[in-house]
Amino acid sequence: MRNQMKYTYTLLILLALLISSCNMPQGNIDPPQQTAEILTAVAETVAAGEGNGDATQDPGAVQPSDTPDGTGEGENATLQPSDTPFPSSTPKPTNTTIPCSQASFVTDVTIPDGKKFEPGDTFTKTWRLKNTGSCAWTAGYDIVFSGGDAMGAPASVQITSGTVQPGNNVDVSVDLEAPAAEGTYRGNWQLRDPSGVLFGVQNSSSGLFWVEIKVKEAAPTEKTVTIDFSSRGQVEDGLDIRTTVNNAGDTSNDVGLQGFLSYDVSGIPNGATILSAKLVAKSGHDTLGDPFGELGCLRAYVHNYGTVGYEDFKPAGATGAIVRFCTPGEVDTASLQEMNSSGIDGIQDALASDLFQIRLQFKEKHTNNDGIADVFRGKFKIVVTYEEP
């Protein structure tokens, strides 16, 4: 389109020059004829310029550029590829070699980190490992201790007696013992191939896997001991002292009786804490008359008498009993044999001297004045539960 307009403008300029030259001498051609010939030439020239293929196109349509766009010219030109390489959207795979011996940690099957144990407790730690290498694990593969706290572990443990193929898991266990002192303990482990080459687990920054426990302060040890009496005595109010019996009640002479028992507690450590105690009647106890009638309930009291004497006989109505039995059957009732806090404190205090003593008496009165012996005849042992220091 641009070339066509240039062509038309050029013709118009020539036409103007020709017209302007009409006054110049032209030989025999007169001016009117000259003008007619010029106009005819211009018309023919314009028609010739409009006769090409572009003349039929819409003047408002966008025309193709004259700029060459490849090899060839015009509408037959072919777009040529650029010399600039285009990046590939899919990266080319690289060949990565998987090591023969390689592993990853899967989970702690037993004993999670931080589990608490008593000193000296034994336990079994089990890890689950995965074979991520290219070689099967055979009986030549081990886990080996690699530092920290061994906790009684062997130097190495065989992973399997069979075969663990690549991609498979295996559980490996080791028997351990908690140290004696309170604290946190950790033992590290890794793997070893049949050639003796050590390798770790991929998903640990150190390559190690481990067992970590806490040993708490040892819980106090409770012990229960049964202690039989070491000596005994009996006081007949103001009349008689015997060291071969320990009866309580009254006599046919209507005189009161009180019994006494001593226990050697030296087997209990001095720093121990007494938790509980019982006064338990030994087999073969019996009664004469009806001591549990008008005399009231049979009671036991803490009484540090040393060697029994007349002065150790106490008046009726005494307080501070550690146990009481109000019928012959109650003597064998376990719940009624339990000593109260006065009895427990009495044994606790006796640890310093290794001697615990009690007095047996019926509380309400010394005698019922019926002229009949009313007596409880029986021996007692003590059962003590304590906590070691």
Distance between the termini: 116 Å
- Poorly predicted residue ranges: 17-29, 50-79
What is the CA-atom radius of gyration, in angstroms?
Answer: 60 Å
Instruction: Figure out the total of helices.
Output: 4
Q: What class do helices, strands and sheet pairing give? A: alpha+beta
Taking the sheet with the most strands, its summary is:
9 strands, antiparallel
How much helix is in the residues?
10-25%
Task: Explain how this protein is built.
There is one protein chain. Helix 1 (2-20) runs antiparallel to helix 2. Strands 11, 12, 13, 14, 16, 17, 18, 19 and 20 form a nine-stranded antiparallel sheet that branches. The chain has three domains: 2-46; 103-215, Immunoglobulins (Immunoglobulin-like); 223-387. It is of the alpha+beta class and 389 residues long. Helices cover 14% and strands 32% of the residues. The chain starts with a helix and ends with a strand.
Defining key terms:
389 residues, Immunoglobulin-like, six-stranded mixed sheet, 4 helices
Fold blueprint:
Layout: H1 2-20, H2 31-50, E1 103-108, E2 115-117, E3 122-131, E4 142-148, E5 156-158, E6 169-177, E7 183-192, E8 198-199, E9 209-215, E10 222-227, E11 229-236, E12 240-242, E13 248-250, E14 256-264, E15 273-281, E16 286-288, E17 298-302, E18 323-325, H3 334-337, H4 341-350, E19 355-362, E20 374-377, E21 380-387
Helix pairs in contact: 1-2
